[in-house]
Amino acid sequence: MAASLIQTFLHGGAAVALATGAATPLAARSAAPPPAAEGASDAVAATQGEEIVVTGEGLPETPATPAYGSIVLTRADLEATPSGLIENALLLVAGVQQFRRSDSRSANPTAQGSTLRALGGNATSRSLVLFDGVPVTDPFFGYVPFTALPTAQLGRVAVTRGSGAGPFGAGALAGTVELSSAPPGALPRRGASVFVDDTGASQIEVGLVQTLGGGSAVASVRRDRGPGFWTTPVEQRGTASVRAAYHNASANLRLLVPVGSDFELQGRIAAFRDERTLRFRGADSLSAGQDLSVRLVGRGPWQMDALAYVQARDYANVVVSAATFRPVLVQQGTPSTGLGAKLELRPPLGDDTVMRFGLDLRDAAGQTREEARAAATGLVTERRDAGGRNTTGGVFLEIDRVLGPAVLTAGARLDRFAIADGVFRSFAPDGAVRRNDLFDQRSGWETSVRGGAVIALGGRWHLRAAGYTGFRLPTLNELYRPFAVFPVTTLANPALRNERLRGVEAGLDYRDSQFQAALTVFDNRITDAIANATLSATLRQRINVDGIHAQGVEAQAAYAAAGWRVTASAALTKARVKASGTAAALDGRRPAQTPAQVASLAVARKWAAGHEAVLTLRHVGAQFEDDLGRDRLPAATTVDGLLRVPLRSGVAAVIRLENLLDETVVTRNQAGSIDLGAPRTVWWGLELRR
Asked: Which domains does the chain have, with CATH numbers?
């Protein structure tokens, strides 16, 4: 079923964030902005005059955006990340977490789920990740293909913690991570970078901005390739152990065309391919995909954001036995398709009121094809396929009202969901049918609400509070596909129920021209949380537990003056599983893959016409690999650095240092079988910006 998609995630603030980003690399959007009519970016305002200016942005943020305590990473933050990887840049924001500590060079792609506020526990994303308004999670698995995102085109990232009730709110269970392209005028017309590291790895990225009449074309390509590092400790290596080699490439083309004086047409076409080898020779994975999206933004008296997209994805994987080093599972392919559309309208109600309403649709369909093999002989023991279709369609309404020093906001969604076409089949090696399970279609209605307020207390202080509910459908992977990470097999569960969240939070913000700070306390509860429950030493199953209860404190601060930028963040969280019945052993335990403390500090100094030095420290507290809290991942503190030195006009030499102190970072502990994160790595490179 082709599902239409609509998304409106407040991109108009991108130009404002870019304008302030030179002074503030990490901006806590805490001060109440002026009403929408006055708060549009300069680039947007230019489109309302005689001259037509293509911005590449969505609609401007609404007055109540600060009520939800969003945090912004600017282009400067992204460019100062020593690894050059988006997923590592996101870790500057308190509360952001991937399922595992490893990044896209050494993690299995399906383990790169994104979540917030210690609400993790499995590899599926519990947060909504958007790129220029389009949901980017894999239609079948729910992971984020970070290597597919065009780093050369990114202008900002806005992270909003807490469920969202606006466009695509059905996927924003724990919050929203919104990546936005930079306006063409904020990008170099000709850009390129080339890096090599001390293992022989390389990163090459090229970007181009071309004016086309009144519009623009923005293109970029990137390739990362390397022999990788040893993820296996020395004492656990065998004859089949290999480095975590990787090779990924992506290409993105974005076209921006003015349509009259009030409308802008934005189109994007992209493709990517990502190959990785994990732990053993032959344990290879391949993910690939193609994207196409079209967006029409209207900035007249009636503002409009209309969007449609299609995604094609595929994934293949080989699991190798740690005992015999033979393949025990060959996942030959997982073709899947994501379709969607959205329409958002904002009527002209005056400077003190902003109303947003519209509808959105999403459809995810896919099927996996794989074969199990005997560890001793490598012979096929079973062939199977599994898959189905998930669809959500909703209507939404949000209203913001400015009342003197206060801004009030309220919103609601009504969604219709359907889980259909579910199937699991297994066949003997000779083709005889062993199982042919066809699962009944399920459908229903879900409601989501959110509301909040931000009040100016005088001076530069602001008080904010918000409450919200949200839901997430189980993914096709969780519903239908069993998987194995030798020697543990995890069973699927076609009866999984939707996850639901309700939460409240309150915060106090301070903001002036040089210093910004935000302190937030929160209480979030998921009911029917999907977890991987241990049934035996080698068997787990996805089940709905009673819930996950997470309470905590998040702090974010940024200072910028006289060439210095200092940013800091910390999250202290108490999270516990609520479980009964067959899952009673999980009750009161911390969710798997959930640290209680996370903190970061970044200090940057610019001087003398483009010289820049950055030092970043990140601490992650101890966490557990498994739901029963037996396999511990120790706390880890890493230090990264970057030095940028101009050589001539538009050319700079760059040194990037990862894990400068060579900290041992344990990323996986399966009953003592260990994987490690990146060791100390030195990158040398050249950047061209003209």
From this structure: 13-428+437-689 (2.40.170.20)
